[in-house]
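Data deposition worksheet. Section B asks for the primary sequence of the deposited chain exactly as it was used as input, without tags or linkers unless they were present during the calculation. Section C holds the resulting structure in token form. Section D is free text for depositor observations; keep each observation to a single sentence. Incomplete worksheets are returned to the depositor.
Section A, Depositor: J.P.
Section B:
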Amino acid sequence: MSRNLGSTSLGRKSRTADPMRSYDALPAPLRNWLAQASLPWSSASARRVWNRACAKGLSPDEALSKLSNAEARTLARDRSANSQHLPAKF
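Section C:
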């Protein structure tokens, strides 16, 4: 059963912490970005990218840009995997 994730070639990972508590602990700009994200990010993954960007001295907007770039790369990887299984058009 795919639940609400739809059809994707990307792997799923199990959670070890309470997902709502982890989400609520995120900074507000990051929570807002996650609410609009195309992929179902875990709080830990989003926080990891956010923390790396902030450690480099990036602004919150630049950190969100890093997250958008990471998401775009993941979506591109998934689309290329799915395109191999599409029938050829005539």
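Section D:
The mean pLDDT is 83.
The two ends are 32 Å apart (CA to CA).
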